[in-house]
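hi! just following up on the protien thing from before. the input was this:
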Amino acid sequence: MKIDIQNTLVDYDPTLEADIQRRLMLAFSNVKSHISSVTIILTNVLSRTAQHTKHCSLIITLKQFSEILIEDSQVDIYSAIDRTIQKATRLIYRKTSSQANTR
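and the predicted 3d structure came back as:
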């Protein structure tokens, strides 16, 4: 499983990338055989209320399925990352378990 992190945040902790890799490996440990690559994109966005929020996009390329795109925006970058990874994990488990049930 290849992990690519694209970070355009100005104000981020230098340990953020290592933390993201650790979180992804832990979250996808049971389904990593189904995943070819993971790209995570971190950006600052301006919300409708003119408040700066952190946006996390997660693109997952699965071996036997189509590509998955999951996004979330939060005020805190760690919350955005956590929510995006949680959504992705649930979706991958659903896709892989439905494939296993059809066999």
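The chain has a mean pLDDT of 88.
The longest strand covers residues 35-46.
cheers
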